[in-house]
Amino acid sequence: MGSPTKFEFENMIIGQAIPSNFIPAIEKGFKEASNSGSLIGHPVENLRVVLTDGASHAVDSSELAFKLAAIYAFRQCYAAAKPVILEPVMKVELKVPTEFQGTVTGDINKRKGVIVGNDQDGDDTIVVAQVPLNNMFGYSTALRSMTQGKGEFTMEYLEHLAVSQDVQMQLINTYKANKGAE
């Protein structure tokens, strides 16, 4: 999925099914609707809208009418698209004394990380993993404890990926509970 935030709008209408002066209002409606997804209220990412057809009425058509129609269309399509919640995943590279390799890789697994590489560097082991950022808070302290202060790591952004189904349900339930409390 890579880095999110992309919004594309493409007008593929042939002819004058919708007068061209209403097209910006349609785009604006989709942009506004995507600012707050219904799952947890966060903006919808990686959205592509292709306008292929429509109709206008000489009396009833207005910018507001087309903007509201776009918002309604977005809500219908959003629900049908089976949206997912994304989270940042980090590339983590660890250098630890080989004697602590098992403990460190076990901890990475507990943090829902995936080991993607393992290499030797003298008495040290280099472990490369992909770990959700949310699971990396406090890792520096944990690594020092596991390796008697001898382990080190670097971390850099890799990509955004969908959270697991159980995490998604937990986030949705928390959002709904907080929204209901307002």
UniProtKB/TrEMBL annotation:
Coiled coil segments of this chain: none
Keywords (A to Z) from UniProt: Elongation factor, GTP-binding, Nucleotide-binding, Protein biosynthesis
Main location: mitochondrion
InterPro entries noted in UniProt: EFG_III/V (IPR035647), EFG_V (IPR035649), EFG_V-like (IPR000640), Ribosomal_Su5_D2-typ_SF (IPR020568), Ribsml_uS5_D2-typ_fold_subgr (IPR014721), Transl_elong_EFG/EF2_IV (IPR005517)
GO BP: any one term: mitochondrial translational elongation
Pfam families: EFG_C (PF00679), EFG_IV (PF03764)
Signal peptide coordinates: none
SMART domains in the cross-refs: EFG_C (SM00838), EFG_IV (SM00889)
Gene Ontology CC annotations of this record: mitochondrion
Start and end residues of each Translation elongation factor EFG/EF2 domain: 2-82
One Gene Ontology MF term: GTPase activity
Annotated localization: Mitochondrion
Superkingdom: Eukaryota
Residue ranges of every copy of the Elongation factor EFG domain listed in the record: 84-171
Classification via PANTHER family: ELONGATION FACTOR G, MITOCHONDRIAL
Name the UniProt record assigns to this protein: Uncharacterized protein
Species per Swiss-Prot/TrEMBL record: Ananas comosus var. bracteatus
